[in-house]
Amino acid sequence: MSRFMQYVIFACLGACLLLSGCAIPTETVDTSYDKGKAVMGLDYRDFENAASDMVESMLSSGAVNKPDGGRYVMVISRITNDTMQRIDTDQLVKKIRVELLRSGKVVTTTAVGLDGPEDQMVMAARDLRHSDEFDQSRGTVKGQLIKPELSLSGKIIQRNNRIDKRRQQVDYYFQMTMTDIATGLAWWEDEKPIVKRGSSKSVSW
């Protein structure tokens, strides 16, 4: 092997060792005690805070206090993402649903949705009613599904504002509305703003 090839090999090995030594180690974050730096975009802490504030507002308003003490059946309508980020709005909705379910005042139906059932098996299982391969005494019967009484819709908005040449402000607005399906009246509405200021070089998408 020529000296040139040996030099190339040693140089490559040295570069690999240098890069591995400078690599940032991976760590698991305990979200209960995370004191990490804030980011200009939306992170899990923003979704948790927005969801908690929305549920607290909803519960304190009395809008989900059913007169007979039972639980309202809620369906998830459209949650629009009007930000510069690729947000899965289910991240926000899921946290709201979980907290409402824990409150004992609201249960969410997965048999209805704007784009079809959230859980397609709810309707698919009903196609088995006429199959001889299944015990029909254990199957679903007509009239068991419960229609939703409340609908939850919302929007996440982003507005970028330059403070000066070095700093920027990004405003996020979490807007939610709960509508009584029977009357079409909005029983509850709220808006949660999240404002972030930082370097104008920071990206928010």
Task: Note the topology.
Layout: H1 3-22, H2 44-61, E1 72-82, H3 90-103, E2 106-108, H4 121-124, E3 150-162, E4 167-180, E5 185-199
Parallel strand pairs: 1-2, 1-3
Antiparallel strand pairs: 3-4, 4-5
Helix pairs in contact: 2-3
Order of helices and strands: HHEHEHEEE
Number of domain modules: 1
What would CATH call the architecture?
3-Layer(aba) Sandwich
What's the number of helices? 4
CATH topology: Rossmann fold
Instruction: Report the average pLDDT across residues.
Output: 86
* Share in β-strands: 25-35%
Question: Largest beta sheet, briefly?
Answer: 5 strands, mixed
Radius of gyration: 26 Å
First-to-last CA distance: 51 Å
Helicity, in percent? 25-40%
Under CATH, the homologous superfamily reads ABC-type transport auxiliary lipoprotein component
Strand order in space, largest sheet: 2-1-3-4-5
The coarse silhouette is extended
| Uncertain residue segments | none
Q: How would you classify the helix and strand content by structural class?
A: alpha/beta
The total count of strands amounts to 5
CATH class: Alpha Beta
Walk me through this protein's architecture.
The protein is of the alpha/beta class. It has a single domain (40-130, 143-195), classed as Rossmann fold (3-Layer(aba) Sandwich), CATH 3.40.50.10610. The protein contains 4 helices and 5 strands. It has helices at residues 3-22, 44-61, 90-103, 121-124, and strands at 72-82, 106-108, 150-162, 167-180, 185-199. The chain has a 5-stranded mixed sheet, covered by helices on one side. The radius of gyration is 26 Å and the shape is extended. The mean pLDDT is 86.
